[in-house]
Amino acid sequence: GAGVSQSPSNKVTEKGKDVELRCDPISGHTALYWYRQRLGQGLEFLIYFQGNSAPDKSGLPSDRFSAERTGESVSTLTIQRTQQEDSAVYLCASSLSGQRNSPLHFGNGTRLTVT
Amino acid sequence: TQLLEQSPQFLSIQEGENLTVYCNSSSVFSSLQWYRQEPGEGPVLLVTVVTGGEVKKLKRLTFQFGDARKDSSLHITAAQPGDTGLYLCAGAAGGYQKVTFGTGTKLQVIP
């Protein structure tokens, strides 16, 4: 498939555990975004990558959240010491260049449940 | 912080009715996109508008970008059950075109 792929699709974890979410963007897309979506709501920006650099991390909620991107491809979002309020769908999107009019192509998200 | 407020939040209508969804902000955007999201999936792009006052039509959907590029509307004519979903507006601004999403409008079209 040529779309954005996210794994796992569902993750249930206990409070206090660390989790790692993965995003495989469309090949050749230099821009990559992570968003968080609470049930039935809009998307909350977390972080933006251009290549392997993250010029905008302003949406990360706390220092428990971090993300990296390697090879201008795969990105991982790590949440340390998970809390119940971290429960949400985490969506990854990529775009060709991050320029105006570049549409975002989304994966189907990872649904995270913290018990 | 750039905020995009959508109204209404929820809309339940009968098949065949018309509806309009609004997306408002105090910030100026260089472009605005509309997405539709279905349960269990990521949002899918419907349209991008870039010029103040621009109107774009996609079958029964009409999108308008405000003259000041701070607001937008989505009008659906003769809604069908297949139009059911979460509609999201998203504005792009800034040096790298940071994309900020609206609060969403959940539409249900009843057969």
Largest interface chains and counts:
A-B, 28 and 28 residues
Q: Number of helical runs of chain A?
A: 0
Computed structural class of chain B? mainly beta
Coarse structural class of chain A: mainly beta
Cα end-to-end separation of chain B:
40 Å
Succession of helices and strands of chain A: EEEEEEEEEEE
Q: Tell me the series of helices and strands of chain B, N- to C-terminal.
A: EEEEEEEEEEE
Question: Can you describe this structure in just a few lines?
Answer:
The complex is a heterodimer of chains A (115) and B (111). With 115 residues, chain A is mainly beta. Chain A has strands spanning 5-7, 10-13, 19-24, 31-37, 43-50, 53-56, 65-69, 75-79, 88-95, 105-106, 110-114.
Key features of this structure:
heterodimer; A: 115 residues; 7-stranded mixed sheet; globular; B: 111 residues; 6-stranded mixed sheet; 5-stranded antiparallel sheet
What features would you describe in this structure?
The complex is a heterodimer of chains A (115) and B (111). Chain A has 115 residues and is mainly beta. Chain A is built from no helices and eleven strands. In chain A, strands 2, 4, 5, 6, 9, 10 and 11 form a seven-stranded mixed sheet that branches. In chain A, strand 5 and strand 6 form a beta hairpin. With 111 residues, chain B is an all-beta fold. Chain B has strands spanning 5-7, 10-14, 19-24, 31-37, 44-49, 55-58, 61-65, 71-76, 85-93, 98-101, 105-110. In chain B, the strands form two sheets. In chain B, strands 2, 4, 5, 9, 10 and 11 form a six-stranded mixed sheet that branches. In chain B, strands 1-3-8-7-6 form a five-stranded antiparallel sheet, with no helix packed on it. In chain B, a hairpin with a 2-residue loop joins strand 6 and strand 7. Chain B starts with a strand and ends with a strand. Chain A binds chain B through residues 4, 31, 33, 35, 40-45, 48, 50, 55-56, 91, 93, 98-109, and chain B through 4, 6, 30-31, 33, 35, 40-45, 48, 50, 86, 88, 90, 92, 96-104, 106.
